[in-house]
Amino acid sequence: MSMPRLPLPSRDGPAGTRRWYQHAVFYEVLLRGFYDSNNDGIGDIRGLHEKLDYLQWLGVDAIWLLPFYPSPMRDGGYDISDFFNVAPDYGTLTDLSRLLDDAHRRGIRVVSDLVMNHTSDTHPWFIESRSSRDNPKSDWYVWNDDDQRWPEARVVFTDVERSNWTWDETREQYYWHRFFSHQPDLNYENPEVADTMVDMVKFWLELGFDGFRLDAAPYLFQRDGTAGEHLPETHDFIKRIRKEIESNYPGRVLLAEANGWPADVADYFGDGDECHLCFHFPLMPRLFMAVRKEQRYPITEILSQTPEIPDGCQWAIFLRNHDELTLEQVTDEERDYLISEYAKDDRMKRHMGIGRRLAPLLDGNRRLAELLYSMVLSLPGSPVIYYGDELLMGDNIYLGDRDSVRTPMQWSPDRNGGFSKADFAQLYLPPVMDPVYGSDAVNVEAQCRNPGSFLHWLRGMLIQRRAMPVLGVGTMEPTACPNPSILAYVRSGEVADAPVGSSPWGTMRPIGEGFGGGTFGRPPAPPSVVPVAAGEQDLAGQRTQAVLCVHNLSRFAQPAELSLPRWSGYTPVEVLGRVPFPVISDEPYTIALGPYGYLWFELVREPPFPEEVIG
Ligand code: GLC
Ligand code: CA
Which candidate, 52, 243, 364, 383, has a CA 20 to 30 Å from the CA of 443? Predict the structure, then answer.
């Protein structure tokens, strides 16, 4: 069965379209681990291309593609030896271009990882730079006679590197590196370097990428007397790239990987003239802390420290990614707590964090996983899902560094989890094979067949979220509640007059046949009827949408007495079943939530007629 072609949303269209990223759900793909099309044991571009059906079915809006450039692979491909090419193991530029075209035809954008801070030490630029002190590239990297400069700059990979300086025997000088010693930092003080990197950005935009995730954004420049992070010079350089995008590639986006406190991270939005999106790094560990403490304050406290962001910007929020669960932006006490709760075995520790996937972190507790996703899908920001976490895939803590969370995607119970037909020994990493998370138990094929699976649940939530644009751009108003285990908030604001979602659960049956064969049916059409009058409607095609989200962070059932004076007279309609609840009054509004329960309500002025929505 061939996939229906969907119209390409205009990427250079009206301003509304250019803000697609404020509503998007991103899906992070490790190319090497996704799908192996030529059975050499390594995932590749054609493999990802073959699986676009799946991603379209799942309902993601954008792919974030981890580095695919030529690399000696000593840091998962973040050690690049050629910025203008594709690693042969992954395919060719033509393969990439075809992938982009097909993704675009399906309305899926693709954002590439852009590693600007450093190269591999095998990059020809570095080989030349280190060869003498007076070659043409001698100043392309950061060299010094001693290793004492910039002592304030912290070492990122504290468990493997002692210093940010490494001695080079040939040149008889030290070179600067913020990450591994085999990843020398480029020297952005040199205009040739800066210009070359801008050319590189243009090269990939011309190929058709919809933007970039800016790897290690804070570290581009160094300056005496500073920690060498978040410097004004670095911001200026990112703004230069943004200008290039605004002038020649409108609609493409920059997403900053800037690990820092909320105020420092928010600086990467500039005045709306720098990055479109920034990962909300400090929120992530606090979600894990809150559910273990069964208290909302870690979340509310960090949200209260999170500044307003400029118009046209958006947070990117996530539970897990290809790195360790980093504990850089927590206090020492919080770090000890998180390690003691989530890394009971020393082998789970990686760098300054924990090298595990979502499901094992949660002891495989599905309700807890749903609760965390419910927060990530409804807090202000665009959600980013790490491949495999839609299945609650497991990890392998016996693998080195962050390979623990980079094992092959589990497509089916077949050989190698359906990832590759290569001999097992040839695979880039062994698939997870334990009885709990192994591909026999956890795989796409099985979860597609089972409407009660986590995969179907998440897909339903993505459909639901799409019908509630206010979750992308609305304001967030915390709802007071005396029970500290309850986290509740109202997202509200004006939204374009799109149809309100009916329950997605009616469409949860697999569509078409042959799920096992990897064929996915047409994604469900967006709901075309407006089952209830949601909020007020005005004549300009704008209406107010308000969604109340309530979360029980405790493993026991809890009462929630919610203070909702502003919404007195409104009816909460539970969004999944469209079931109207009693009208809100001036008194506290009391509901009960089961263990790790969550409920989303649309707040509507006029109560719907129950037979219309239920029958
Ligand atoms: C980023 C990447 C990480 C990599 C590092 C150095 O933090 O997410 O995987 O090791 O940059 O490039
Ligand atoms: Ca391959």
Answer: 383
Cα 41-413-391 angle, rounded to 5 deg: 90
Mean pLDDT split into 10-residue runs, the chain, 615 residues: 36 59 97 98 98 98 98 98 98 98 97 98 98 98 98 94 97 98 98 98 98 98 97 98 97 96 96 98 98 98 96 98 95 96 96 96 98 98 98 97 98 98 98 98 98 98 94 96 98 73 34 36 37 40 91 98 97 95 97 98 79 49
As a whole number of Å, the CA-based R_g of the chain is: 24
∠ CA 123-128-130 to the nearest 5 degrees? 95
Nearest to 477 by CA among 461, 468, 488: 488
Active site residue 389: no
Tell me the CB-side half-sphere exposure of residue 358, using CA atoms within 13 A: 27
Query: Which amino acid, one-letter code, is at 175?
Result: Y
Do 490 and 546 contact (CB within 8 A), yes or no? yes
Exactly one of 168, 215, 274, 323 is catalytic; which is it?
215
Asked if residues 75 and 179 have their Cβ atoms less than 8 Å apart, the reply is yes
C-alpha span between 76 and 19 (Å, rounded):
31
Residue closest via CA to ligand 1's atom 2 equals 215
Query: Which atom of ligand 1 is least distant from the CA of 75?
Result: 10
Pairing of strands 382-386, 26-29: parallel
| Strands laid side by side in the 571-574 sheet | 475-478, 486-496, 542-552, 598-604, 571-574, 579-580
Q: Are 465 and 377 a contacting pair, CB within 8 Å?
A: yes
Distances (CA, A) of 478 to 504, 558, 567: 27, 18, 13
The ligand that comes nearest to the alpha carbon of residue 324 is 1
- Is 25 within 8 Å of 59 (Cβ atoms)? yes
Q: How many residues does the chain have?
A: 615
Q: Is the CB of 179 under 6 A from ligand 1?
A: yes
Task: Report the alpha-carbon distance of residue 141 to residue 592 in Å, rounded.
Answer: 60
**Ligand 1 within 6 A of CB of 324:** no
Is the CB–ligand 1 distance for residue 89 below 6 Å? no
